[in-house]
Amino acid sequence: MKSFFKLWKIVNVADSERALLFRRSRFDAVLPPGRHRISLLSGDVRVETYDVAEVNFDAIKAKFLLDNYGEILGEYVKSYELSDHQVGLFYRDGHLVDILPPGTFRAVWKGGKVVRVGIVDIAKEYTVDEKVLTLLGRGVRAGQMRIAAQAISYNEIPNEHVGLLVVNGKLKKILQPGSYGFWKYNRSIAVKLLDMRLQTIQVSAQEILTKDRISLRINLSGNFRITQPQKVALKLNDYKNFIYRELQFSLREAVGTQTLDSLLADKDRLNIVIATDIRERLAENGIDIASVGVKDIILPGDMKMILSQVAETHKESEANLLTPLEETKAVCSLQNTAKVMDGGPVLPHLKELESLKKISACIDKASVHDGLDGEFIDSVKLRPTA
C-alpha cells in the first residue's frame, strides 16, 4: 500500500477578502484576492482570512504585526494611533461613524471602503466643533446616539437662561442661549442652568410672635430675578434656599417689632420693611428682589374669639352712644311740632286726622266725639277697605 504525502494546499481568496499566511506560527505573507497554491514542504501552514468590507483589522496582534512586519502589511493595512490628548473622528465613505478615544490604536484594511480619521487635539480646547456637534449632538441615529453619549457632553441653553460651564470643579464660562458640546475625555464637564426670568418664592406658615407677644402664622410671597449669574454661581450653593432664609429672617424681625394692631392696620408697610431690609444683601449676591407681599395673617383660635368679642363690644358701645342721640332728636322734633301747632288752630285738627288714619287701619269701628270743634258729634263708623 502506497503512502501519500500532500505537497500543496489550495487557498481561494475572494475579492472582498485578504488572508494572512503563517508558517510554523510565524507571519509569512499577505494573500491578495485570487487562487493560491501553498507549499506544505516547509512545515505547518496556517491561513487566516479577513473580510475587508468590515474595514477594521481586528487581529489580536495587529499592532505587533504592523510594528514588526510593516513593510509587508503596509501595502494592505493602514493604522492610526492617538496620543493621550487626541480624539479621532472616524469617517467611512464620507460619513462620521465613530469617535476614537484618546490612546486608541485602530488598523483598517485598504482597498475596501474609503476611510479617514480626523485628529482633534483636546489638550487645551475641549469645545466640540459646530459641524461635528450638528452630526452627533442630537444623536439622530442609534449609532450616533451611543457615540455621542460616550464622548460628548451635549447641552442646550434655552431662551431667558444661561449655562454655567464647570470644568474639573471650576467655573470656566457663562454660556448664552444656544447648543454646546464638550469633549468628556480627560476632564469632568458639568453645565448648570440658571433661569434669568422673574421667579416666585413662597415662605409659608411662619409662626412668629408680635411685639405684644401674640402668636401669628404668616404666609409671605416674593418675586426675584437673577441679574449676575457669575456671582450667584461663585457665592451661593443654593440660591433659592438663600433667598428663602433671608425672607424668613427679615419677616421675623419685622413682625417682632410691631404690635398686632399695627400689623393688621397696615400690611403694606410690612411688605416695604421686608423688601428694604433684604434688597442690599441679595444684590451683593447677584439677585434683585422685585417685590414682597404678605398673603395671609392667620390668628390662633382663641385670639379670633377675643377679637370677635372686642368687635361686638365695640358695636354695642356705638349703639349705646346712638340711642341718647336718637332720643334727643325725637324730643327736639316734638318740641318743633308743638311750636308749629301753637302757631295755627288748623294744625291740631290735621294731627287728629292723621291719628285717625293710623287707627282705622287697625280697628273695625271707632267713635269720635267733639272732634274738630264739635263738627263730629255723632259717631262715625269706619270699616276697613276691601
Q: Can you offer a commentary on this structure?
A:
The structure is a single chain. This protein is an alpha+beta fold. It has three domains: 135 residues, no CATH class; 101 residues, 2-Layer Sandwich (Tetrahydropterin Synthase, Chain A); 43 residues, no CATH class. It is built from ten helices and 18 strands. The strands form seven sheets. The chain has a three-stranded antiparallel β-sheet with strand order 3-2-5, with no helix packed on it. A three-stranded antiparallel β-sheet has the order 8-7-10, covered by helices on one side. β16 and β17 form a beta hairpin. α6 packs across α8. The radius of gyration is 51 Å and the shape is rod-shaped. About 2% of the residues have low confidence.
Q: What's the quick description here?
A:
The protein has ten helices and 18 strands. It is an alpha+beta fold.
Notable features of this structure?
single chain, 386 residues, alpha+beta, 3 domains, 3-stranded antiparallel sheet, 18 strands, Band_7, Band-7_stomatin-like, Band_7/SPFH_dom_sf, Slipin family protein
Lay out the secondary structure.
Blueprint: E1 8-13, E2 17-23, E3 26-31, E4 34-39, E5 45-51, H1 62-68, H2 70-73, E6 77-81, E7 86-92, E8 95-100, E9 105-109, E10 115-121, H3 130-136, H4 142-151, E11 152-157, E12 161-167, E13 170-175, E14 178-183, E15 189-195, E16 199-209, E17 215-226, H5 229-235, H6 239-256, H7 260-265, H8 267-283, E18 287-298, H9 301-342, H10 346-360
Antiparallel strand pairs: 1-4, 2-3, 2-5, 6-9, 7-8, 7-10, 11-14, 12-13, 12-15, 16-17, 17-18
SSE string: EEEEEHHEEEEEHHEEEEEEEHHHHEHH
In whole angstroms, the N-to-C terminal distance is 156 Å
Which stretches are low in confidence, meaning pLDDT under 50 for 5 or more residues running? 374-382
Broad structural category: alpha+beta
Radius of gyration: 51 Å
Helix content: 25-40%
Number of E strands: 18
- Please, how many helices? 10
Oligomer category = single chain
What sort of overall outline do the alpha carbons produce when their principal axes are compared?
Answer: rod-shaped
Q: How are the strands of the biggest sheet laid out side by side?
A: 3-2-5
Largest sheet: 3 strands, antiparallel
Question: What proportion of the residues form beta strands (DSSP E)?
Answer: 25-35%
How many domains?
A: 3
Q: Estimate the mean pLDDT confidence.
A: 82
